[in-house]
Amino acid sequence: MKRRILVGLCALFILLPLSALQTVEQALPQLNAEQLAVLRSGEQLETSNLDGDTLLPFVPVGTEAERKAKESEVLTDGFAVASVALIPYPEAWKDMDVKTRELAIFNTMRKVSTQAGITYISHRAGDKPRTLFKKSYYISDPEDKKSQIPDPVADKVPTNLISYVYQEDTSFGGNIYRHAYTNDDEELFLDVTNFTPMKFMGITCVKAHQLSMCMSSYQTDEGILLYSMATITGRGPQVQVLFIGVDLPSSFLKRVTSLRNWFKAQLAEVQ
Fold first, then answer.
1. Which of 2, 27, 40, 116 could disulfide-link 136, Cβ–Cβ 3.0 to 4.6 Å?
2. Of 200, 42, 186, 176, which Cα lies nearest the Cα of 106?
C-alpha cells in the first residue's frame, strides 16, 4: 500500500509542472474572444503607444515582459511597438516537462547565426520581401566585430546571462547588440540593446543604447506566447535622411514580425 502511495505521489509531482501552466486566457486576461481567436489562428496581434493605446493587454501578466511594457507605457520622449503570437509546441516537445522544454526553447532563441538571410516586408522595395540581416553571429568581445564564436548550446537555463551579437543590417549597417536574458520557470526574457549607433545612409537614426528590442517566450498549456516589443527613447518616430523619410515604428514592427517568423520557422524544424 505504501509503495502504491509513493508511486502515485511521484507521478503527481512529475505531472504537476504540465498541469500548472496557465491557459492563454489566464496569461492574457484583457483580450476579448475575437483577439483570442486571432491568436489561435496563427496570426499575431500588434499594438503601439503612439496614439495613446496601451501595450498591457498584449503581454502575459506577472512577467518580466510586463514590467518592461509598463516602463514603456510612461515614456514621454519615445515610443514603443509590440506584438504577441501563440506558437504551438513542436510535436516532439508536447510531452516534455516545463523545465526540459524551457531549455529547448532557450537554445532555439540563441541560434542567432540562423537569422542571417531572414527577410522582412520592405516599403522602399515595393512592399516586397527584402533581406534583413546579411550577417548574424555571436562575438566574444563587444569591441571587436571579428571575434566571432559559434552559437552557444546550454545544458541548463541560467537566471541571467549577457552576450554580444554582431548583425549586418541591410538598412542600418553593421551593428553590435547586447543580449541580456532574465529567465524563470515559465518565461525566457531577452532584451536586445544596440551597443553601437544605427545609421541609415551614413546618418545616425538611433544612438547607441537608444533601442531596446525584447522577445519574451512564455509557456502556456496550448503553446508558446511570443511577446515582442521595440522601444526607442529620446527621439521621435520619424527620421528624414536627405529626401527619404524613415518611419521608425513601422521599420521596427516589421523587424519584430520577421523575428517572430524566424522563431516559428526554427520550431517547425524540430524533430
1. 116
2. 186
Spell out the residues 6+ positions from residue 61 whose beta carbon is closer than 8 angstroms to its own.
Answer: 27, 28, 29
The domain spans of the chain are 2-268
Q: For residue range 115-169, what is the model confidence (pLDDT) as tens digits?
A: 999 998 776 667 788 899 999 999 999 999 999 999 999 999 999 999 999 999 9
DSSP state of 159: S
Q: Which three cell numbers stand for residue 161?
A: 546571462
Query: How many CB atoms neighbour CB 163 within 10 A?
Result: 18
Report the run of H or E that residue 150 belongs to, with start and end: none
Would the pTM count as exceeding 0.90? no
Q: Which amino acid does the sequence have at 117?
A: G
Q: Which amino acid is at 23?
A: T
Nearest CA-CA partner of 47 in 38, 39, 56, 37: 56
Write the single-letter amino acid at 210.
Q
**CATH 3.40.640.10 fits domain 2-268:** no
Q: Tell me how far CA of residue 62 lies from CA of 32, 66, 227, in angstroms.
A: 19, 6, 13
